[in-house]
Amino acid sequence: MLQTEQEYLHILKVRLTGYISREDLDDILSDYAEHFSIGKSEGRSEEDLCRALGSPDDVAKEIRATYLVKKAEQARSARNIWHAVMATLGLGLFNLVFVLIPFIILIVLLGVIFIAGVALLVLGPVLLLIAVMQLLGVTITVPWWTSPPPGVLISTGLFIAGVIMVVVDLHLARFCYHVAIRYLKWNIRVIKGKEAPEPGEPCPQTTVISREGATGLDLQMRFGAGDILVGEGTDEQTLVKLTSGNDTCPAPCDYTATLRDGIKKVRIRGSHSFSCSWSESAYAWDVRLNREVPTALEIANHAGRTRLVLGELDLSALRIKTGAGETRIDLAGYHGGSFDAAIRNGVGSLVIRVPKESNLSIRIHKGVGDVDVRGLLVEGDTYMTSPHPGAPQITFQIKQGVGSISLEAV
Amino acid sequence: MNIQFKKGVLEICVLSVLANKDCYGYELVGEISKRIDISEGTIYPLLRRLKDEGDVTTYLQESAEGPPRKYYRLTDSGRVKEKEQREEWMQFAASVNALLEGESHAAD
User: Which domain does B94 fall in, by range?
Assistant: First the structure.
């Protein structure tokens, strides 16, 4: 359970960063900061205010869903509507039945009509050609399924039917898109995934690994499935602060820590059992690291969202391996030491924000999906920043499986 | 009470409070959570959505106790929406009440 205003605002900020515009983010954070400041001036404690506000995760999910639906409404694309559907799904299991299944049925239906229409569109002229040739007295052998070949009228009729089907299908798709948006909006308005946690219910478990004079951290984390968030935010004497589980269910996790030659070696394994009911949101791991201690970071996540907010940390190496799920790596504002990074992403989009003020070189082995790069120089498959003397040297190797890559220097 | 219920009616609650007077966020949250037990944090996303849809506007106003506060005010379209939803709700609630009372009489 969250205790302080700072924690609340921090989580909200991290959960929304990269999803909504800077101005909107500042605006939202200032709304909650105002709430806290007025509440405190009325003599309420930060802990009490946090509890009354409920989970910042839920707030962030709702804002994201609203935002993505709005985006899908403004710019029509299959990708935007997909994102909007997925974000709305994230609001709770109840939605699975109400959002995904109708959505999939609709897509399949529209797809089938479209394919049938295109087939007729192609078949019609072919049959027409055969019919005309035969009228002209040319004998051609036709496959068994077209013999005897239909006449000119029927061929033309089939072609026109194909045109009508495709046109109607496209109109239908537009109409469905419109309805889908309205439906998603209704969902956001009405559907609420889970109850606000009552005080005293089981809460996330926190593990603290102390620094004990270590001058470096070698951290390896392996997770089965879940949402992972890594960022800064420990006190000076703490090396790693790990919070696992969601509001209603702690996630199983074990770790080992050994100190050798001033380097603390920490191995964390998060397992996934299905003791928690399906209706709860996925397991979440929140890992906070010490911003003063150089860290070699290795993370493997088989399935789930992986978000790394590393701009405030001091890294010595970065190794990420993800299976299925979206991956975000935010290094905006990074001013720590130089490091090499290797990223292997399986299925899912990969979003990376890198600092402009650095000596950066990024090599991308792209898989299936678009690569969108902003603010970097290109040379073949390598992207770089213009040199900044004195700034950290960062080398990235990115291997992407299926999904888009978005790379932005900020 | 069922949370699905609450979320569905939250919008009309917010609109209705704002129809009486302009409020700042904390005040509005207080008005609502006084009567309905709900995660207070979810009211802010709702206010943003109403603002996006043009049903409320915001303005800053100095306060005696500290920094200026963000006030929410219903727009004309917000007032229309409030009225519509209020009537809908009243009718719905009256029907449900009539039904439930009918049931309890039958049970006696």
Answer: 3-107
Size of interface A-B (CB pairs under 8 A): 80
Decide if pLDDT at A73 tops 70.
yes
pLDDT value at residue A274: 40
Distance separating alpha carbons of residues A259 and A399, to the nearest angstrom: 33
Query: Which residue is it, tokens 């200026």?
Result: B68
> Does pLDDT of A242 surpass 70?
yes
Where a domain ends, among A143, A164, A193?
A193
Give percent of chain A above pLDDT 70.
87
DSSP string, A75-106: S--HHHHHHHHHHHHTT-THHIIIIIHHHHHH
Cβ contact B69–A34 (<8 Å)? yes
Q: Average pLDDT for residues A265-292, to the nearest whole number?
A: 66
Q: Does A53 sit within 8 Å of B39, measured CB to CB?
A: yes
Name the token pair of A263.
């380097």
Q: Supply the Cα-derived Rg of chain B in whole angstroms.
A: 17
- A378 vs A400: CA distance, rounded Å: 18
ipTM reported for the complex surpasses 0.90: no
Residue A31 resides in a domain: no
Rounded to the nearest 10°, the torsion over CA A321, A400, A329, A337 is 80
Q: How far apart are the CA of B45 and the nearest CA of chain A, in angstroms?
A: 6
Overall number of domains in chain B: 1
Structure tokens at A3: 């205790």
Question: Which of B49, B57, B58, B85 should we substitute to test contact with A (largest number of A Cβ atoms within 10 Å)?
Answer: B49
The DSSP symbol for A386 reads P
